[in-house]
UniProtKB/TrEMBL annotation, chain A:
Keyword Transferase: yes
Protein name: Beta sliding clamp
Reported function: Confers DNA tethering and processivity to DNA polymerases and other proteins. Acts as a clamp, forming a ring around DNA (a reaction catalyzed by the clamp-loading complex) which diffuses in an ATP-independent manner freely and bidirectionally along dsDNA. Initially characterized for its ability to contact the catalytic subunit of DNA polymerase III (Pol III), a complex, multichain enzyme responsible for most of the replicative synthesis in bacteria; Pol III exhibits 3'-5' exonuclease proofreading activity.
Top-rank lineage group of the source organism: Bacteria
Domain (DNA polymerase III beta sliding clamp C-terminal): residue spans on this chain: 247-364
GO MF term list: 3'-5' exonuclease activity; DNA binding; DNA-directed DNA polymerase activity
Gene3D superfamilies (UniProt xref): 3.70.10.10, DNA Polymerase III, subunit A, domain 2
SMART domains xref list: POL3Bc
Domain DNA polymerase III beta sliding clamp central: 129-243
UniProtKB/TrEMBL annotation, chain B:
GO MF terms held by the record: 3'-5' exonuclease activity; DNA binding; DNA-directed DNA polymerase activity
A Pfam family per the record: DNApol3-delta_C
Organism this protein belongs to: Desulfofundulus australicus DSM 11792
Record EC number: 2.7.7.7
Name of protein: DNA polymerase III subunit delta'
Chain coiled-coil ranges: none
SUPFAM superfamilies according to UniProt: P-loop containing nucleoside triphosphate hydrolases (SSF52540)
Enzymatic reactions: DNA(n) + a 2'-deoxyribonucleoside 5'-triphosphate = DNA(n+1) + diphosphate
Length: 369, 329
């Protein structure tokens, strides 16, 4: 392997992949970055087996080849190199590389590329195409609802479902649920579904750009692949059945209201300041043409009245303030519809006039005095 | 290492190969047997056979990418769990459970090898129970233990138990010759006194100066101990009490030594001795002790070994032993 590259390009690629590399991995080879040169492109791969990130940059190739270089050295080394052309030259018959910059040289010992875990090849063709900014926003809208409880692994993931032209993401931690639909341009013949770890989707959201350029998503038996022109992210899937979430989404409501998102969000956050430590619940009173947000504790009381359209029966309901704030923030809409089924059963939040998103929130028990 | 290349344990290896060949590997195994008998080695070879993409008659091919990754401990679907400090903690087990819920990375299977599984804390063991009973398809858990009686019965009942028996001295010497460069007479001696556990023999051969060097140091500690003063006994104890493993090795050699003295005293012939090459010395030493004294010494050493295994302070235990031995004469 022999190639010439610029420092900014190398830095860009190393920064992209190093998030997936753990310098303390039990597998020695995974403490490194895989360098592979094919044609005039250099592919850098980092992996902790759960998340694999591959980034490719253009280089001036002399000979093709591959090597795994330990992240501990390569990342800091490249960062501290001067901004002049850098040449990588692997020594045939060994697992070392010589890096030449100007008249100086440095050599690093690495691992055989053959030892590096190989991702299974993609068999299902092109998969689906979604603009990057859309995917980023969709992920933001559901990821907050992912559970951190490792004892129930399926809830630490996001259900990704493709059926016909509909692309859907669902996340729930059993106290709340977020669901986002996206209409695809092309129809998919075979419906597919998979549970992808929330942690790796967080990385996908971080690495995708704010552009309309498309990202392709392919769901394979054991992996999900997200790829753009210069980036490929692979995530392992969580084995198991996602629970039948559709059953828990209520269809009939006793009370509906339509209010300004900003107002109710600010009111909730202010009210939560007075809420009891360890049980941060806020009371919502829905009455004719207004929604009252209030808290009364030993610390004092607060009451905010937000005008809005209320249909149906008047109702008093308590919500966990943090859960409510997170749900409101994920709505991405100026106005919201809050639909209630009773003081102790699920509430549904939707952006006004947008059917593609909903989030469901279970109320809290009224605090005992 | 391939299953076919292993020495001994023929029955177990045949059963494992059949399981791979017929694709009927159990989801959970317990490899029980004395320390150093080859349980982990077999488990890793079995893991290689399970993960190999071109298995040959139920065994790893040894050439494919998966096999080479296993050999270099780089296979992403082969996980090893070892005690962190004195026990396997619940956090470690939770991490394993998380990995189990993910689909395999490279192939169709994930293999987990839990070494010294009897050191799981009770919480850790209970946490593993549900998954051990019914892990996701393609998961194989191999629990390893030289003290299976210390495992929860609920763990054992969920595993297919394979009990490893000590090897014959000839088999141990084959392994010793393969993995160490110990001289022939040392190989012969070690294979006899390893108790059929090649791992133990390899460890003894690997100490500084080889087994003979180690024995020499231990004999110097034992020699004339029964006539030593209290201060001298404590000084000698300090030499081996720094590290628990060293202390255990020392006790092991002491046991063999005093056993030889006793056998020599009773029979007067070298045939039944482990340290046959030192017969004149043994014969001389044996005359110093009475039969009762030797029996008492051996009992003391065994008691100290049990205390050490039960986590008694190493230094105090060794000092106690040496003081008793010094008083034995």
């Amino acid at each position: 392997m022999k190639f010439n590259a610029s420092k900014p390009a190398l830095m860009h690629a190393i920064n992209a992949v190093q998030k997936a590399v753990s310098p303390r991995s039990p597998l020695p080879v995974l403490t490194g970055i895989l360098f592979e040169v094919t044609g005039n492109r250099l592919y850098l791969t980092g992996s902790d087996t759960e998340l694999t990130i591959q980034c490719n940059i253009e280089v001036e190739t002399e000979t093709e080849g591959a090597i795994v270089l330990p992240i501990r050295y390569i990342s800091d080394l490249v960062r501290s190199l001067p901004d002049i052309p850098i040449q990588f030259n692997s020594i045939p018959g060994s697992t070392s590389v010589i890096i030449t910059y100007g008249t100086s040289q440095v050599s690093i010992h690495g691992y055989e590329p053959e030892q590096y875990p190989r991702l299974p090849s993609i068999n299902r063709g092109t998969g689906i195409q979604v603009p990057q900014d859309e995917l980023k926003e969709m992920l933001r809208q559901v990821l907050f609802a992912v559970s951190n409880d490792e004892t129930r692994p399926v809830f630490t993931g996001v259900l990704m479902q493709v059926d016909g032209k509909q692309f859907r993401l669902v996340a729930t931690d059993t106290y709340r649920l977020a669901m986002k639909n996206y209409q695809l341009e092309e129809e998919i013949e075979q419906p597919v579904r998979a549970i992808i770890p929330g942690k790796t989707l967080g990385e996908v959201a971080r690495l995708t750009g704010n552009t309309e350029e498309k990202i392709s998503i392919i769901l394979e038996e054991n992996h999900a692949f997200f790829s753009t022109a210069d980036l490929k992210i692979a995530s392992r899937l969580i084995a198991g059945q996602y629970p039948p979430y559709e059953q828990v989404i209520p269809r009939e409501f006793v009370t509906r209201t339509r209010v300004t998102t900003r107002e109710i969000m600010d009111a909730t956050e202010r009210a939560s300041l007075l809420a009891r430590d360890g049980y941060p619940v806020v009371k919502f009173t829905l009455q004719e043409n207004s929604c009252v947000v209030s808290v009364q504790t030993q610390a004092g009381w607060i009451r905010e009245e937000i005008s809005g359209l209320v249909e149906g029966e008047p109702l008093e309901i308590w919500f966990n303030a943090r859960y409510m704030s997170e749900s409101l923030r994920a709505l991405n809409s100026d106005e919201l519809c809050l639909e209630l089924t009773g003081p102790l059963s699920a509430a549904v939040l939707r952006p006004a006039g947008d059917d593609s998103y909903l989030s469901l929130l279970l109320p809290a028990k009224p605090p005992k005095d | 290492m391939k299953l076919a290349d292993l020495t001994g344990h023929e029955e177990i290896i045949r059963a494992l190969r059949r399981a791979v060949e017929q694709n009927r590997a159990s989801h959970a195994y317990l490899f029980a047997g004395p320390e150093g008998v080859g349980k982990t080695t077999t488990a890793l070879a079995f893991g290689a056979a399970l993960l190999c993409r071109n298995p040959e008659q139920g065994d790893a091919c040894g050439r494919c990418r998966d096999c080479r990754q296993v050999a270099a401990r780089n296979h992403p679907d082969l996980h090893r769990l070892v005690p962190e400090g004195a026990s396997i903690k619940i956090g470690q087990v939770r991490e394993v459970l998380r990995l189990i819920t993910l689909s395999p990375f490279q192939g169709q299977r994930q293999v987990f090898v839990v070494e010294q599984s009897d050191l799981m804390t009770q919480e850790a063991a209970n946490c593993l129970l549900k998954t051990l009973e019914e892990p996701p398809a393609g998961t194989v858990l191999i629990l390893i233990s030289d003290r299976p009686h210390a495992l929860l019965p609920t763990i054992i009942s969920r595993c297919q138990v394979l009990t490893f028996q000590p090897l014959l001295p000839e088999q141990v010497s084959v392994i010793l010759k393969r993995v160490t460069d110990a001289p022939d007479e040392e190989v012969e001696l070690l294979s006899r006194l390893s108790g059929g556990c090649p791992g133990r023999a390899v460890r003894l051969a690997g100490t500084e100066g080889g087994y003979f060097g180690l024995r020499q140091r231990m004999l110097e500690l034992a020699a004339g101990l029964n006539r030593a003063s209290l201060a001298e006994a404590l000084q000698r104890a300090a030499a081996v009490a720094g590290d628990k493993e060293d202390a255990l090795t020392c006790l092991e050699l002491f046991l063999l030594w005093y056993r030889d003295l006793l056998v020599c005293k009773e029979t007067g012939t070298p045939e039944l001795l482990f340290n046959r090459d030192l017969f004149p010395l043994i014969d001389r030493e044996a005359r110093i002790y009475s039969r009762g004294q030797l029996l008492r010494v051996i009992k003391e050493i065994e008691k100290t070994r049990d205390s050490l295994l039960a986590n008694v302070n190493t230094r105090l235990a060794m000092e106690m032993l040496f003081m008793r031995l010094a008083g034995a004469g």
